[in-house]
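User: Okay, second chain of the day. Same drill as before: sequence in, structure tokens out.
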Amino acid sequence: AAHLKALRPGLPLVCGGIHPTLVPEQVVTSPAFDAVIVGEGEYPLRDMVERLEQGRDYADVQNVWMQRNGEVVRNPMRPLIADLDELPYVDRELFDYDAMLAANDGWVDILSGRGCPYDCSYCCNPGLKARYKGLGRYVRFRSVGHVMGELRALKARYPIKTINFQDDTFTLDHRWTLDFCEAYRQEFRYPFWINTRVERILDEDVVRALAGAGCAGIRVGVENGDETLRANVL
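Assistant: Same drill. Structure tokens below.
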């Protein structure tokens, strides 16, 4: 970021994501950034871009922090996006996605939702839940139809080989998982991988549905294998 700012000092540089959301006080002090977005960034970034386009100040946009005249401006956060289906599909054209797929043997990363209800000590979710407290439901899934629509768009545009779902706990909602597997099985033949937890993959109907839909692998997060440590330390 500092290198970019040195090359293009007049170009607004905005930082967002998990790290700035959890420790904005640390990130906002960097002279490389004109603004930091705390929390979900779709609508704050849109509002900032509209203000810039109109030549207006963006210092009061919700979720945006910045330094002004030696002081830190900390705008309040807006509610979490309740319906993820209202967001457009990810614009992968921004990132030379054909080259990325060629280097990644056709693996496509995709998210079907946001958030995880568990409190693993190694994970960012406990901190994010605390940050978003009072701003709406933290764990949300897109509808199966919306996910299928993105997969169709990907299939039509890119040479896909494998779908890689990066949700923390893909099988959290068993009804959603079964509905997805049925829809996916009818339309796609790409193998896919998921993340989940041991207790969310014990239902044999879910396991059979995943296998029948083409699930090729399941990654399971294990916080600790020692029960005494889990009970007394974590």
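The radius of gyration is 20 Å.

User: Thanks, on to the next one.
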